[in-house]
């Protein structure tokens, strides 16, 4: 696990120090940004091959923030709009991404419960954005460091490419600190 932890840590630093608004007007900054996101998506694909097969991708990542996308292609239901499972996928994985890149690889995210409220069909790709404030990250770390576990909730709005609000998600996570031993053990 040490190698993957090092890779996750290095990738997190790489992405955190790249300019999320970089364009081809500044080729080196653009390469740093796109290469960083490619590395993040490769790590996700190695950990959860299902995500790659279903065209999930992280579009933007910085400390306390993630934006993810799921493609309509390959994820259509029986009447041509986004399949319900694809909504779930795009709303669930970012919690793990935030945990890994904001807390570090020593903290394992576990989804405990998730609800989706469908508002209207999506006939295009769907995106979602999540954030954790620095205070939330500090609280999660403090709880996990003290007890070996911490809870947090992410609420998201899913949008189609036209900006229509197509669904809401509420995900309850638990984080476990690897190797935690209570005092006196």
UniProtKB/TrEMBL annotation:
Gene3D superfamilies, A to Z: Hotdog Thioesterase
CDD domains: PaaI_thioesterase
Protein name in UniProt: DUF4442 domain-containing protein
InterPro entries in the cross-refs: DUF4442, HotDog_dom_sf
Species classification: Bacteria, Pseudomonadati, Pseudomonadota, Gammaproteobacteria, Pseudomonadales
């Amino acid at each position: 696990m040490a190698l993957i932890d090092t890779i996750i840590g290095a990738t997190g630093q790489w992405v955190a120090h790249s300019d999320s608004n970089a364009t081809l007007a500044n080729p080196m900054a653009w390469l740093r940004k796109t290469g960083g996101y490619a590395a993040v998506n490769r790590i996700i694909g190695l950990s959860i091959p299902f995500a790659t097969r279903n065209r999930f991708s992280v579009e933007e990542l910085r400390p306390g923030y993630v934006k993810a996308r799921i493609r309509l292609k390959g994820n259509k239901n029986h009447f041509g709009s986004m399949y319900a499972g694809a909504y779930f996928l795009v709303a669930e994985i970012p919690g793990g991404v935030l945990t890994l890149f904001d807390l570090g690889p020593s903290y394992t995210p576990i989804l405990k419960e998730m609800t989706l409220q469908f508002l209207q069909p999506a006939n295009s790709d769907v995106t979602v954005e999540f954030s954790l404030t620095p205070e939330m990250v500090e609280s999660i770390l403090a709880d996990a460091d003290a007890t070996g576990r911490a809870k947090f909730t992410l609420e998201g709005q899913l949008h189609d490419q036209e900006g229509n609000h197509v669904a809401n998600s509420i995900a309850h996570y638990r984080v476990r600190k690897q190797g935690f031993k209570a005092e006196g053990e």
